[in-house]
């Protein structure tokens, strides 16, 4: 049954990941591959037939078409964060050629044989370098058996790097290949796969007769259902085939899947788990979610039983790398979190490369929170030992704000060093540090992007052909977003636009929807093409229309983001007629993609990941933001399931709901429940985003438990969060009357106020950040004074209120002027109501009216002794943004808090909503007059 499933799924998987139906030239590849597989199955002898097989395979697959398709698949990113911001170390890196290292008790020397097997084996294993090995092999040439030859291959790999080219190694390999050929028929599957693996790693051509025979022998064994093939052999063979990326893995390895599925069911040891992780990683195109979920269940059981623990960090790292590839990372967040938590006891003992890998995964998934402190300590130790751009890039997100200036100085030293720029992947590490430090010094930014431009100008044809420059496109678009669109480097924009448009027009990548979307996004955004001020290139529009049915939500998000940037940079003040026509056509494509997604059967769960992307996509286009499909997509949130919730999804949804003012009580309740159930894993920054979202939308949770846990999380992570996040979280907790005394004491003290002032001094956005922080501190101070008078927190914001009011010009809207006119007519005296009144705690009230005991309007009394005899009525004018987007009766949190506080200060609060005031049934003046009379309960 499972074999049938694999057969049916094979072409579906290929189509899913490469969109082969759009690439005509790829038909030749697929057909050739099928014929070669059939040929392979029919061969039982080696020699000429094996050589013919590999020669044909090379001719079919070594062409540019396959190389491009494979690289495009490797670079595919599907997680929301990969479109929103780059990972700490650039994109996800899937190293399918990872060496199959042994665990703690097994070395590579005795991978296959006992080192005491015979005298020659002992002598071979006693060699310490390639020279000794070569001398020994030639000395015993007439006594070498198959075991000795294969062991010599393994030892050759041990002693020399796969990239090393020297005469001794080449001569030794040639001799070993000659010795190995007569023994091929006698090799078992473990010997065959191991020999093939290490010969591949040493770059022996796959067309070599011995290599062809080894591969054919190994595949025959795997394809034979009656032959036993152990897991180690399958994993070695999978890695070997993926090494070099010159085989079409989905076709060649199709029959591996049934065996892997069986091994998943019987997985009992950490070594089995490690080998399965290697197999799944290297055979990813063939792995569907049924297999992946079965493997995840086995790993969870092994974790619970303690089989996988901190005692086997290499196994955990291998599993993490497999689970974290971009294709399915968002589906594996819960297991990734558990594996990271299992690493906690041994974080400080991890090797520096492994530590950086763990850090990258943690920063993306933001769970578990308990890993933050040990990672921060380990990275600081690493930074003290090894000060490099890469280490700095990883350390900055964990650093205290007070260290920002020192880290900036370190960054300046790196960016001015020519030696640093010559290091591998230096531009990625420098970018990560630059962005995390939020440096706004234009000179430093220019220095970095000048280095990138130099790198682009000297890029090799191979790098350009593999689209390495796309990384810089992604970084530049996100970097520009960090500085609010104020920074531009025209040289980088021009060079990247030129490279992108060339790839779109002349390269096969221009025909692949997922790659085209990334290329087109940059060209849309920055132009630098002929007639770019008048229109977008016609080729972009035609390809967008032609690929409309193949775009994923992620592709649509990229395209919409490029359009959004272009409208901000080039067409902010005037949109040319041609651009308007092109935008309309592209909008129809984006809407059709959203429509296609919305029409998915209810039987198929709407992935929150894709849903978040679509909402962001439509939000980027003002013309689509109020469309029917936009609201229809938003309503899809009500039908999603919440089994796959995690911190990344929580932050994405909180952003979307806050930006759109869209209220979905069921989802907000699930988000808060997730915090309550996983409070030991969720970080304070994530909790703050959810609290702020719930507060802004005015949603009150059903239980107080999530709020209590949120308060505890704030205390736990107090030293790791920035001041703005802490103040926002505390304000939301005040709204819910859930802030603890301890948290109030920690916020309203000299140390925290000084901390906020230091952050303001070091912030990168001097135009908006200080004002935003100070305003929120004022609101928090006001809320604590009114809601928690027993805490004895003083009101120290009066000067800020007065200064803020003096700088804010008063502008009377048409709505306000209309209400004031009817109030004057109704009360017959303008002195009976006060406009734009400011309360002692800085609340602004549109109109204040005083009524006596007989409900007659009177002038404001001068003596405070009379206040108990009158009723103070506060009239608030509420605009549309005071209510949730999808419920005009649901008042948002800030306005609800204002009403609650005004009532505490003795006001009777009345509300007039702008959408009701200007509605059709109140179009007549008498209707508005009657509405006010009823509202104020005036009888005449």
What's the count of strands? 7
Mean pLDDT: 82
Distance between the termini: 84 Å
Q: What fraction strand?
A: under 5%
By secondary-structure content and strand pairing, the structural class works out as mainly alpha
The count of helical stretches stands at 48
Helix content: 55-70%
Overall, the morphology is elongated
Low-confidence stretches: 1-106
Main beta sheet strand tally, sense and closure:
5 strands, mixed
Radius of gyration, in angstroms, nearest whole number: 33 Å
Index terms:
single chain, 940 residues, Endonuclease, Chain A, 5-stranded mixed β-sheet, two-stranded antiparallel sheet, 61% helix
Q: How does this model look, in words?
A:
It comes from Glossina austeni (Savannah tsetse fly). This is RAP domain-containing protein. InterPro entries: FAST_2, FAST_Leu-rich, RAP. This protein is mainly alpha-helical and 940 residues long. Among the domains are: 256-365; 640-807; 809-936, Endonuclease, Chain A. The chain contains 48 helices and seven strands. The strands form two sheets. Strands 1, 2, 3, 4 and 7 form a five-stranded mixed beta sheet that branches. It has a two-stranded antiparallel sheet with strand order 5-6. A hairpin with a 2-residue loop joins β5 (883-884) and β6. α10 (189-201) runs parallel beside α12. 41% of the residues are buried.
């Amino acid at each position: 049954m499972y074999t049938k499933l694999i057969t049916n799924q094979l072409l579906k998987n290929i189509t899913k990941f490469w969109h082969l139906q759009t690439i005509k030239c790829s038909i030749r590849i697929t057909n050739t591959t099928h014929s070669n597989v059939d040929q392979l199955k029919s061969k039982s002898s080696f020699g000429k037939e094996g050589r013919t097989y590999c020669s044909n395979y090379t001719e079919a697959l070594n062409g540019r078409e396959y190389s491009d398709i494979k690289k495009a698949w490797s670079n595919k990113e599907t997680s929301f964060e990969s479109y929103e911001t780059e990972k700490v170390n650039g994109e996800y890196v899937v190293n399918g050629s990872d060496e199959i290292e042994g665990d703690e008790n097994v070395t590579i020397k005795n991978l296959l044989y006992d080192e005491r097997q015979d005298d020659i084996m002992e002598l071979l294993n006693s060699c310490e370098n390639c020279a000794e090995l070569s001398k020994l092999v030639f000395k015993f040439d007439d006594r070498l058996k198959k075991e000795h030859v294969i062991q010599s291959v393994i030892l050759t790999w041990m002693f020399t790097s796969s990239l090393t080219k020297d005469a001794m190694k080449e001569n030794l390999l040639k001799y070993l290949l000659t010795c190995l050929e007569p023994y091929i028929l006698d090799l078992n599957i473990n010997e065959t796969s191991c020999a093939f693996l290490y010969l591949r790693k040493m770059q022996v051509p796959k067309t070599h007769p011995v290599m062809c025979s080894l591969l054919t022998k190994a595949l025959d064994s795997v394809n034979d259902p009656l032959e036993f093939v152990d897991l180690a052999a399958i994993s070695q063979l999978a890695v070997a085939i993926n090494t070099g990326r010159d085989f079409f893995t989905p076709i060649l390895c199709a029959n591996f899947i049934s065996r892997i599925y069986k091994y998943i069911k019987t997985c009992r040891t950490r070594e089995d788990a490690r080998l399965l992780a290697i197999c799944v990683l290297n055979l990813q195109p063939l792995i569907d979610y049924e297999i992946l979920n079965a493997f995840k269940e086995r790993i969870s059981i092994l974790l619970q039983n303690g089989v996988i623990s901190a005692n086997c960090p290499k196994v955990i790292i291998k599993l993490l790398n497999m689970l974290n590839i971009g294709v399915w990372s968002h589906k594996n967040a819960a297991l990734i979190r558990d594996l990271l938590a299992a690493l906690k006891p041994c974080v400080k003992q991890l090797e520096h490369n492994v530590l950086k890998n763990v850090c990258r995964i943690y920063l993306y998934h933001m769970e578990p929170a308990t890993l933050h402190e040990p990672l921060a300590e380990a990275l600081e130790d690493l930074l003290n030992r090894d000060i490099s751009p890469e280490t700095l890039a990883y350390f900055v997100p964990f650093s205290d704000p007070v260290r920002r200036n020192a880290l900036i100085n370190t960054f300046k030293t790196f960016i001015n060093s020519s030696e640093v720029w010559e290091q591998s992947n230096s531009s990625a590490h420098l970018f990560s540090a630059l962005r995390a430090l939020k440096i706004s010094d234009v000179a430093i930014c220019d220095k970095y992007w000048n280095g990138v431009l130099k790198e682009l100008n000297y890029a090799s044809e191979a790098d350009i052909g593999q689209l390495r420059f796309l990384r810089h496109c992604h970084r530049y678009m996100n970097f520009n977003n960090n500085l609010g669109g104020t920074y531009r480097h025209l040289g980088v924009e021009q060079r990247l636009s030129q490279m992108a448009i060339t790839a779109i027009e002349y390269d096969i990548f221009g025909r692949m929807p997922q790659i085209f979307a990334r290329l087109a996004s940059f060209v849309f955004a920055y132009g630098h093409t002929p007639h770019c001020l008048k229109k977008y290139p016609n080729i972009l529009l035609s390809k967008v229309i032609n690929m409309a049915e193949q775009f994923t939500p992620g592709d649509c998000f990229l395209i919409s983001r490029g359009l959004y940037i272009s409208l901000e940079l080039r067409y902010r003040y005037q949109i040319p007629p041609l651009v308007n026509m092109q935008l309309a056509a592209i909008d129809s494509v984006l809407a059709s993609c959203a429509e296609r997604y919305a029409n998915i059967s209810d039987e198929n769960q709407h992935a929150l990941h894709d849903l978040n992307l679509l909402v962001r996509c439509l939000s980027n286009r003002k013309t689509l933001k109020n469309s029917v499909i936009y609201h229809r997509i938003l309503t899809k949130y009500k039908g999603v399931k919440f089994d796959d919730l995690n911190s990344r999804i929580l932050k994405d949804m909180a952003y979307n709901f806050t930006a759109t003012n869209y209220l979905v009580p069921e989802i907000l309740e699930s988000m808060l429940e997730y915090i309550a159930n996983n409070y030991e894993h969720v970080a304070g920054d994530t909790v703050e985003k959810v609290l702020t979202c719930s507060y802004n939308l005015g949603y009150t949770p059903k239980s107080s438990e999530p709020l209590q846990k949120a308060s505890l999380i704030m205390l736990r992570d107090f030293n790791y969060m920035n001041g703005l996040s802490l103040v926002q979280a505390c304000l939301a907790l005040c709204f819910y009357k859930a802030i603890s005394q301890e948290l109030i004491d920690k916020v309203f003290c000299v140390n925290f106020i000084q901390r906020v002032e230091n952050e303001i001094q070091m912030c990168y956005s001097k135009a908006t950040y200080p004002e935003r922080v100070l305003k929120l501190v004022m609101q928090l101070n006001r809320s604590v004074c009114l809601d928690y008078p027993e805490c004895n927190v003083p009101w120290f914001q009066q000067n800020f209120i007065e200064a803020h009011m003096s700088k804010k010009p008063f502008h009377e809207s048409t709505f306000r002027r209309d209400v004031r006119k009817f109030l004057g007519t109704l009360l017959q005296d303008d002195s009976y109501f006060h406009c734009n009144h400011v309360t002692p705690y800085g609340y602004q009230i549109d109109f204040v009216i005083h009524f006596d005991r007989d409900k007659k309007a009177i002038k404001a009394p001068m003596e405070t002794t009379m206040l108990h005899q009158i009723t103070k009525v506060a009239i608030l004018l509420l605009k549309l943004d005071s209510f949730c987007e999808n419920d005009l009766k649901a008042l948002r949190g800030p306005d609800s808090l204002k009403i609650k506080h005004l009532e505490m200060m003795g006001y009777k609060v009345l509300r007039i909503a702008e959408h009701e005031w200007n509605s059709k049934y109140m179009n007549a003046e008498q209707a508005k007059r009657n509405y006010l009379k009823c509202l104020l309960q005036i009888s005449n």
